Predict the structure of ABC transporter ATP-binding protein.
Amino acid sequence: MTATTTAAAGTTPGAQAPLVRVEHVDRTFGSGHAAVHALRDVSLEVAPGELVALVGRSGSGKTTLLNTIGGLDRPDAGRIEVAGREVSSLDERGLVSLRRDVVAFVFQTFGLVPVLTAAENVGVPLRMRRTPVDEREARVQLLLDLVGLGPHAKQRPGQLSGGQQQRVAIARALANSPRLLIADEPTGQLDSETGRAVMALIRAVVEAEGMTAIVSTHDPVMVALADRVVHLADGRLVDG
């Protein structure tokens, strides 16, 4: 585990170019007196292999920032680049490609398909890419073993605990070997003990898969496990 540091922006020192680059991004919802300034001149860089914890009160802009980085939302101004792709200028086809090949998401809600087994849920992204059956099954088993659910491959979500369902969701997010994992309050529906286990799992899979991750969280365990902590307040990056 690396030591945790706190910073508003910047990257871990090193020769590699940032995997994520956010430059002067603004995002406003509504207009006039009802306008909500979710992001205000946000600039941020995240290095390859770095695990960043994004913290701030509810309404501080964390989800909006994650959504703009992952291509689920567009900024009103500024520029976002992920793995050399300028996300903020991609058309819908380019965004689909980004979310299929580069970025994966984990949310508070697990989003599993109830009628599919754990293994089948994890295999959905691989089926969409038409991955050969043998390769797909091997990848699914590897991921279930990685998240500690190998023996539960044939169980459906309703037969699993909340923590186990989130582990399946994490395994599914890793199916296509993404370069960036975006997790928005991934322990929000879990009890503290299960949440700690899931946070430790995210740290472990980032290292095992060689990924970069940005995780929004209120959980002090995730903060302690992160390489760097970024604070948001009223849509701005601030010193902790």
Notes: The longest strand covers residues 36-46.
